[in-house]
Amino acid sequence: MPAPGHQSAAVLAAEPAPPEAKAVFELHLANFTGPFEVLLNLISKRELDITEVALAEVTDEFLAHIRRIQASAGEWNLDEASEFLVVAATLLDLKAARLLPSGAVEDDEDIALLEARDLLFARLLQYRAFKEIARQLAGRIDEEADRYPRRVPMEPQFAAMLPELVWQASMADFAALARKVLAPREPVPSEVSLGHLHSPRVSVRDQTELIEALLRSNSSLSFRQLTADAGHPAVVVARFLALLEMIRDAVISFEQMAPLGELRFRWVGNDGGTGGGGGGGVD
Amino acid sequence: MEYSPADQPGGLKGALEAVLMVVEKPVTEGELALALGIPPGQVAEMLVELQREYDGYTGGGPQSVDARQPRGFEVRSLAGGWRIYSRNWFAPVVAAFVLEGQTSRLSQAALETLAVIAYRQPVSRARVSAIRGVNVDSVVRTLTQRGLVAEVETDPETGAILYGTTPSFLERLGLGSVAELPRLAPHLPGLENLGDFDDTTY
Amino acid sequence: MEYSPADQPGGLKGALEAVLMVVEKPVTEGELALALGIPPGQVAEMLVELQREYDGYTGGGPQSVDARQPRGFEVRSLAGGWRIYSRNWFAPVVAAFVLEGQTSRLSQAALETLAVIAYRQPVSRARVSAIRGVNVDSVVRTLTQRGLVAEVETDPETGAILYGTTPSFLERLGLGSVAELPRLAPHLPGLENLGDFDDTTY
């Protein structure tokens, strides 16, 4: 017997899963069993609360799934992996937005939060809409491929009436043209570069070292204190990410006396240093 | 006496068929009218007559005694113009003779990118990327090489190249125009008016 | 159930028409017989029937009540192969339509495509498209029509048609052979490796 609240794809899927030739990514969660597509479907129809879906388990299962494909096909399925990342990131955003304290709308910030939530939801729906439309377009293309257009060479009598070609290019001209056309092209940038805005690149690793030094020499510090000298939002973000990593690595602890109260951090690691996790950076 | 296609055996309808035999892409009623020296409305009428004849109805009337078989080809209006196609039910036979071979299938990524461009055109690669959540540069390049999308204009503000679908895209989908694309709204419940949310979230 | 063209609307004769309508090169009775799974003699009979139908006689018999108009096209055998052509008596209309807008100069796109084919021959259209970044199907057709390039072989792996330049092209450039084309390599470091990326993008 499934646990109460357990949703099974077989009974609840309003739409059948897409007929995939390859292995379908199946999930086996505490409250849901079935293809990933069906899970998305339930969430988008709000029949399953995103806050009740264990995204970490979804990710673990996806990684296992993609490894199985890699093992059997001999290569990574990048299409599927990048697609999963997009959807997972949206789900994570959505879940984060849902978990934020809700209640009476009191100020502009609350309204902004609600709007952000709807936008995330909209983004997920839009992504799925285009996937569905792409499936329909593929069907139409397949259907049309059975009709062959008449496209025959010009009948000889008309070809003979074409105006005589006037050839003006010399051999040198022609070679120069070939050189130009065959030269490897610089990839065209897809958007206007923001490089000229001089946004400094901030290393999370550097910020980790800085925070470690600060916390080792102070018994505890608040987030406000730790970012007082930041100067640029990217530095604040990098320090926040550094703190998250240090919490994960269990080298610092944190406490918060009241909801929305001040966050205080304390060094609890050994004396050997963190090993500097996180080579990433924030632009 | 001066030459007039109307005086030839088969008359103007025959002349219309003759021109359809040599077109390389869908040809508009206006172009056909110009070639035949008659008003576009008359061309449109004759095209519908030809369609009916090829489908197995006689030109003579609806109650003809000998039930006619449909021809092995049809004349269709696609991408804003008319063109002759073989019947889809003979595809297995015809395929053996068409040297070009149907072009290879589009990948899932290409299809989804094509869908976004079709519904959001004219659209920049950056915006398509925002909606798809991945970089689409190489996919757009492939679609351009296949003649399904093309650079149509430049954004006056950002200078970004904007892409749109081509007549060849419409032909591949069997559509008369972009307006005939299946509606997106049913797949976006309650979000019909939220067309631009993708710009604000990235 | 297995597919059989005889079971389709229009039957075997329809299948024959479908092929004759869209083939790019005239096809022999033997090839048609093979594709339809019938003896060549039956193909020959049906070809004569089609000829009569297009000429305005009904398939039903010589004494049909409604005198039919001849069609604007005919099925003809040229150099041993069959294909559908426009009617000769509409040649003035068809010629005016075909020659409209034709010039004595090659477009820039045609010249650039010709340059790629000249230096990369034998080369598929897909690869030329990848190098030029746009679809070249119709430009290659123009160049073929102008006798500057021709289908030279078929790629043994992909089955794609490979194009090369013609003697008439060499004549225009005043060259004895393709080997006499000016070398590009010294000015293009890395060009030799160009072949590695463009195939994968299509």
Notes on the protein architecture:
- The complex is a heterotrimer, with 1 copy of chain A (283 residues) and 2 copies of chain B (202 residues).
- Chain A has helices at 9-12, 36-44, 55-73, 78-99, 108-144, 156-159, 171-182, 204-216, 223-226, 233-248; strands spanning 7-8, 26-28, 32-35, 202-203, 221-222, 252-256, 263-267, 281-282.
- With 283 residues, chain A is mainly α.
- Chain A has a 3-stranded mixed β-sheet with strand order 1-3-2. A 3-stranded antiparallel β-sheet of chain A has the order 5-7-6. In chain A, strands 4-8 form a two-stranded antiparallel sheet.
- In chain A, α4 (78-99) runs antiparallel to α5.
- Chain A is extended.
- With 202 residues, chain B is α+β, with helices and mostly antiparallel strands.
- In chain B, 39% of the residues lie in helices and 12% in strands.
- Chain B has 9 helices and 5 strands; from the N terminus they run αααββααβααββαα.
- A 3-stranded antiparallel β-sheet of chain B has the order 3-5-4. In chain B, strands 1-2 form a two-stranded antiparallel sheet.
- In chain B, β4 and β5 (161-165) form a beta hairpin.
- In chain B, α2 (29-36) crosses α3.
- The termini of chain B are far apart.
- Classes of the chains: A mainly alpha (283), B alpha+beta (202).
- At the B-C interface, α1, α2, β2, α4 and α7 of B face α1, α2, β2, α4 and α6 of C.
